[in-house]
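Quick one:
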Amino acid sequence: MSFVPPPYPYERLEGLKRLAGAHEGGAVDLSIGTPVDPPPEVALAALAAASGARGYPPSAGTADLRRAAAEWLTRRFALDAAPEALAVCVGTKEFVASLAGFLHLRSPARDTVLYPAISYPTYAMGATLAGLRAVPVPLAQGRLDLAAIDERDADRALVLWANSPANPTGALEDLGAVAAWGRARGVLVASDECYADFTWEGPARTVLEHGSEGVLALHSVSKRSNLAGLRAGFYAGDPEVVEYLRALRQHAGLMVAGPVQAAVAAAYGDEAHVEAQRDRYRSRLERLAGALGAIGVAAPRPAGSFYLWARAEGLDGWALAERLAGLGGVVVSPGELYGPDGAPYVRVAMVAPDEAIERVARRLEAAA
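Output:
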């Protein structure tokens, strides 16, 4: 066998789960960023009422969904967004994993994917699945260190991934600088912006604010609307690239179910549920940051996202994760899961109900 899939990152946490589970009341799992809070009622009602299950749904997205997504881009980022310049995907993870392979068909002379050195593992895995090179880009103050990219790698690059707010660090990228770097070298910039609604420092931002040429922005209802189980998102940007990908994805049979598209359109039309979710995540971040600080763990509140990127002097991420499992009955992700440069850290996701977050905080404070 020429390729053996590596263990899925979160399958490596079983020992931490057993240790945390010894606490009275059981473990609180803050390792995987899967939402737990209620989805919007308007989306659930649209899902229940939809009649689109009989026929094949349009691969690019229904007119209603594309219009709702364009109107959301216009409201959120003050853009002049057009429904024709975007298309849907079967959850953004699927898009991240498949983009490199599709782009390689378009530009077979290029064989490299550039991605943040500390990041969501699927950026690199997308290159691996396509038989391409995955080259990490160092970070400086949480942002892509564009000057550190070897020009020989740039010449071979199909795409440069940016992620803002970033998973796992919560940093905000200089998207204008990234877009300019890509245009100067003919490298597509793909900006994963699925946490944009959870931007804490300043307004939400998108690469599309700097023009659509040579860029794609990727958005999802998984985090924004607690609809990860529906598997739906969209990509928008350079019209030529959007149309190319739309056509390829149609041939591949990549379609979001019709009733799901109706629910997603409804979710993008509603902002009240997003504001409620922002309040939940902000409160949880503040509560756990304080509790971690009480036991000597540095956990600064992020510029964006719903993760704490935390570390403790003298411990690597695995040792710190073990300490937190033992003291607080909480399962967190060692930073090494997001790249070797993340090894000193852990990622703590605010994906448990308020009472569970409070339980962890009290255990940690009692240990202090």
